[in-house]
Amino acid sequence: MDLFSSDKITNILPFDGTTNYHGIILDKSQCDFYYQQLLEKINWKNDEAIIFGKKIITKRKVAWYGASKYSYTYSKVTKTANLWIKELLELKEIVEKESNETYNSCLLNLYHSGDEGMAYHSDGEKMMKKNGAIASLSLGAERKFSFKHKETKQRIDIVLERGSLLVMKGETQKNWLHRLPPTKKVNSPRINLTFRTIEL
Ligand SMILES: O=C(O)CCC(=O)C(=O)O
Ligand SMILES: [Fe+2]
Prior knowledge:
The chain is α+β, with helices and mostly antiparallel strands. The chain is built from 3 helices and 15 strands.
């Protein structure tokens, strides 16, 4: 985190968690460069899960990367991490410096258009470090992102700008759900990267 960016970092949650919006941390040429590289080089796959005994295949594409071939089973489907590529290691370093945290894995999502989103959930999987920071970097189309408190149901909306960083930490996952709502207003793709720390 540099001296000049720290004053624009704000916790967007009113209580029960810390989610800092750092604003735009990548300039336009970095955004264009990494967006293209990731589109071409990432091992994108449609996500699969078994829900109520039925196989679900998402339109959104996903990929999981990390420092070793971590594997875990979620909704009866086993996933294995791909090994870091150069561009992800570069982005990881930028994000680690800006957030003052470290990460050992990254989940990537590719939303082809505003039709695709992600339903309310929290990211408290067993293999993730408890209350560990999750750093969300956005490339491509700007999208709205929403939080909903698990008890009070209070909602907080934010626009995730291209090249922006949002860092969820502390009790955010315990107390709040988040989602990427689908929207008719967006027709272009977005890539999101969430850097995380997993413990095996
Ligand atoms: O696409 C996003 O901004 C969020 C993705 C997300 O919540 C997740 O991968 O857990
Ligand atoms: Fe999430």
